[in-house]
Design brief:
Rossmann fold, six-stranded parallel β-sheet, alpha/beta, 5 domains, 47% helix
């Protein structure tokens, strides 16, 4: 056993032989087949640290990817914690840990020069991809023919919903749309032209979706100029959850890792869940075939579940016929998860069933069983119980949660798509209906009118109140608009003004209601951006109400919106967790209750039928077997989440697939309860990621105004107007572009004409993100600042080392993040420079002390990263026309750095302890003037803000 492994084993003496082998097998391709509860996360963490501790790689030379952000945060934090125990002194912040999407985005942002994207590109999520296609529907899809879009779908929204999976699949399978255009099938030809137009508009509008993030990064890797540079800097690649990767992700991993092929993939084909997102078990099954010498190590000892639970779900998987008619298997052969040999398991009913006469009875029995466990102290917290279902929408979970309500059992079900069922949201919808007069016949014919009528009913106590007066006055103002007139009010402004009045101002003191209202602000921001209604005008006032209710809210209510989930408290104490199978992946609980055993199970097959012949590899699994395969995989994931107790519940006979696990089970309450009652299940300590705080968007904002931090950062309200940041961002980005040209060896190409072109391109991109346009005078002033900066500093350009350098410092309880605008260096000397676009203040201004702290922390990080003492810490005020006047210099002092560290500890602790009270009101004329909450704060008596909107 080598020295480093010996040190690891001292810390983790329970590591088994296969785990140790997986940690130390570092060279060449490696497949780790990791069953549930087999410690794969720990193995990946220790393998990463083994590479660093043995000197095989620097942190910056290692890529570690996983499927979810939560899993990536857990990997990051565990690497950090264990590294200290192993005495590793290398700075780990350059480890590339994240989801495949986040890692792709990171490299794209650093290499925009080699893509069709520009600064300020926006990444579309599921909702905004819908809205983007809706925004450009006529250009992408075109008019209907015979009342059908693309010959198949009746309405725009149904077309978009059905079209997106086709678009994503074409992207992820790297299908050339020209092939589709040559098809004999008219629908396939239509798909080809639709896809080409979608992709064209995507890049023209500086947008990218999740699928294209991957193809763009693959293009970068395959670029002859920059690809080798990226590949040369990476020595080891590790990919978790490889069973849920798609074709383009496989190509990224294989391309990135070649020719050395130090690629380690970890996964379990039995736990593949994401076929609907393009994932295929083919990648993990066929991984060894890509190499001559791929090693395989099975991790099959389960340290999570009771022995009886393991035996039951093994029987379940073995009951499925995994072979096709030709004898080809779609599962690794002879694979069986086993309990640890040296563990003695207590004797009690660890697997049993609940069978209700109907849904009411089933829900009641489930609730009574959970209450029994709590009353008998088998569990100490309802949080240790998870109800896992195929879907948690109200129609699937309602009979359980209603029973929980009857028995007083709190529960947490944020993905029930029940956002619009909340009273505060119904009331807000009603207020907007009154503001824009979405009333009378329009409302009566509205399919979701009950939400608004219920909102009216909830507001009846406020008929004679300042809220009512405000709505009447604003409604009259809208109605009074004449030809060519407009109001300098955005739709989002109305929300923030409404929040200043009861009952909404009272809701802002309740966290859940505040979170829901924050989501509403985000939805309105998207409406403004994708429907292009920035301010209210005579011309658009009628259109706003019809598009807001008839299109936007109708689409959202129809599809459902998730409620807020707190990443710092994902499993609220005292609540039964109600979750989908997909949510449960990667988690475990002492008690797991699995339902949906008799419900229909469908799998998307039409896309493969339509496009399969165009895939580079063709189809893999036999179509007739896919539903059975996927049902088994989904419920295997659900069953294997259980640590101590697995309960299967139904009202009808379970599907035949479940016979091996269901048959012979005792039914609650007819189980050996005296044995169960004697158990004391240890509570599960769920992982909570370490908080990260940005110097600029967290620390500085909190110091400016704790209330602004609370609303914008903690609760994530979307600003209604963000024009004030445009000028500074525009100047910053264009100066960064100049530095990137220098780093690419293109200094000689830079002149005033190029700078103006870059400046205008950045301006266009920023406006496209929803920022308010600049007036001509400040826009011209910004360009002048950039050109002046370049002309004044041409002689320094050969000293540019890096631009926009991401930096971080890990503390015991949090991580602090920053970004250095510019690193200058020569002859082993380094200088740190930060740009400021506002007028240069007096040296004694309090703002200067804040910037000095920021620069000093950057100096400390640079000293740790490069081993160089920072020669100078500099602020550069771009509004100054002469360099000597623009520069403001600070000394680097280790003693001052220690003071800075204590200051950031204090501010971060205030944030984490939620100290958001305002003891010293900010300067109203400077800080509050552009803040959306100025009216709310004024009515609360925090500040004295004069406004006609305050009644």
């Amino acid at each position: 056993m080598d020295q480093v492994l010996s040190e690891i084993v001292v810390l983790f003496p329970s590591l088994n032989t296969e785990q140790q082998k997986a940690i130390t097998t570092t060279e060449g391709p490696l497949l780790l087949i990791a069953g549930p509860g087999t410690g794969k996360t720990l193995v990946l963490v220790l393998r990463t640290l083994y590479l660093i501790k043995t000197g095989k790689a620097l942190p910056s030379e290692i890529v570690l990817t996983t499927f979810t952000e939560k899993a990536a945060f857990e990997l990051r934090d565990r690497v950090s914690q264990i590294s200290r125990k192993l005495g590793i002194k290398e700075s780990l912040h350059e480890l590339k840990i994240g989801t495949i999407h986040s890692i792709c985005e990171g490299f794209i942002s650093k290499n925009l020069f080699y893509t069709q994207l520009k600064n300020n590109y926006l990444t579309l999520d599921d909702l905004t991809q819908y809205l983007f296609i809706y925004e450009h529907f006529n250009e992408i899809v075109g008019p209907p023919r015979n009342d059908l879009y693309l010959g198949k779908w009746k309405t725009k929204w149904s077309t978009i919903k059905a079209l997106i999976p086709f678009i994503n699949k074409i992207t992820e399978e790297l299908i050339d749309p020209e092939q589709l255009l040559r098809s004999e099938d008219k629908f396939v030809r239509n798909l080809g032209s639709t896809y080409k137009q979608y992709r064209k508009l995507l890049f023209e509008n500086n947008r990218i979706d999740f699928s294209h993030l991957q193809t763009v990064f693959l293009d970068i890797l395959q670029n002859e100029t920059v690809g080798p540079k990226i590949k040369d800097k990476i020595k080891y690649i590790m990919v978790d959850e490889y069973q849920d990767t798609n074709y383009v992700q496989e190509q990224i991993i294989l391309t990135w890792g070649s020719p050395i092929n130090n690629i380690c993939v970890v996964g379990d084909e039995d736990q593949s869940l994401y076929r609907f997102r393009g994932a295929t078990i083919r990648n993990i099954i066929e991984f060894p075939s890509h190499f001559k010498d791929c090693k395989e190590i099975p991790l099959l000892t389960n340290y999570r579940s009771h022995k009886q639970i393991i035996e039951r779900y093994n029987s379940f998987m073995q009951g499925v016929d995994w072979a096709d008619n030709d004898g080809r298997f779609y599962r690794f052969m002879n694979k069986e998860v086993i309990p640890p040999e040296d563990t003695v398991f207590p004797d009690y009913p660890s697997v049993f069933s609940i069978w209700g006469r109907n849904e009411f009875d089933e829900g009641q029995r489930v609730a009574e069983m959970i209450k029994h466990l709590k009353d008998k102290n088998v569990i100490t917290d309802y949080r240790d119980v998870a109800l896992v279902l195929k879907s948690v929408r109200i129609e699937s979970s309602g009979h359980y949660t209603e029973a929980f309500d009857r028995l007083g059992i709190p529960y947490f079900n944020p993905r029930a798509k029940a956002y619009f069922e909340n009273d505060e949201i119904k009331m807000m919808l009603a207020c907007f209906a009154m503001l824009f007069e979405f009333m009378g016949e329009h409302l009566e014919n509205y399919p979701y009118r009950d939400y608004i009528y219920q909102g009216f009913e909830l507001l009846k106590d406020y008929i004679k109140s300042p809220l009512s007066e405000y709505i009447q006055r604003r409604n009259a103002q809208i109605n009074s608009l004449g030809e060519g007139q407009s109001l300098d009010i955005t739709i989002g402004d109305y929300l923030y003004q409404l929040l200043a009045y009861k009952p909404f101002s009272r809701f802002l003191k309740e966290e859940n209601k505040t979170r829901n209202l924050s989501i509403f602000s985000s939805l309105l921001r998207k409406f403004q951006q994708y429907y292009h209604f920035n301010i209210v005008t005579f011309k658009n006032k009628e259109f706003i109400k019809f598009y807001l209710f008839g299109s936007f809210f109708r689409f959202l209510i129809d599809g459902g919106i998730d409620e807020y989930e707190d990443p710092d408290n994902p499993f609220p104490k005292g609540h039964v967790q109600v979750m989908t199978i997909h949510q449960s992946k990667g988690l475990d609980f002492p008690v797991i209750i699995v339902g949906s055993l008799a419900r229909g199970f469908t799998t998307q097959k039409q896309i493969d039928r339509t496009l399969g012949s165009y895939y580079e590899r063709g189809l893999f699994e036999p179509e007739k077997r896919i539903t059975d395969f996927d049902r088994a995989r989904h419920f295997y994931v659900a069953f294997s989440r259980a640590q101590k107790l697995l309960v299967l519940t139904t009202t009808d006979t379970p599907h035949r697939t479940f016979a091996p696990i269901w048959e012979g089970l005792d039914q609650w309450p007819h189980v050996k309860r005296e044995l169960l009652n004697a158990q004391r299940f240890s509570p599960k300590n769920q992982y909570i990621p370490k908080r990260s705080f940005s110097l600029t968007s967290d620390i500085n904002i909190y110091e400016t105004c704790p209330r602004q931090y609370q609303m914008y950062r903690e609760y994530k309200f979307e600003p209604s107007r963000v024009g004030s940041v445009l000028f500074g961002t525009l100047v910053h980005q264009t100066i960064e572009d100049i530095h990137r040209y220098v780093l690419e060896g293109k200094f000689n190409e830079i002149n005033s004409e190029l700078i103006e072109e870059l400046y205008n391109e950045n301006y266009k991109g920023l406006i496209a993100t929803g920022l308010r346009p600049l007036a001509l005078t400040p826009r011209e002033a910004g360009l002048k600042q950039v050109i002046t900066y370049f002309n004044q500093n041409k002689d320094l350009m050969d000293r540019v080392i890096e631009t926009e350098v991401d930096v971080s410092v890990e503390k015991d309880k949090y991580i602090i993040l920053g970004k250095i605008d510019l690193l200058l260096g020569k002859d082993n000397k380094v200088e740190i420079l930060d740009f400021k676009t506002q007028p240069k203040p007096d040296f004694n201004d309090l703002l200067i002390e804040r910037y000095k702290r920021q620069l000093s922390l950057y100096g400390y990080i640079v000293n740790q990263r490069y081993g160089l003492h920072p020669e100078r810490l500099l602020l550069y005020w771009t509004s100054e026309e002469i360099r000597d006047n623009a520069l403001m210099e600070f000394p680097y002092s280790k003693d001052y750095v220690n003071e800075v560290g204590k200051h950031f500890d204090y501010v971060s602790s205030c944030i984490m302890e939620k100290k958001f009270d305002i003891n010293n009101p900010p300067d109203v004329s400077k800080i509050c003037k552009e803040c959306d909450f100025r009216i709310y704060c004024s009515k609360e008596g925090v500040i004295n803000f004069k406004s006609e909107d305050i009644l």
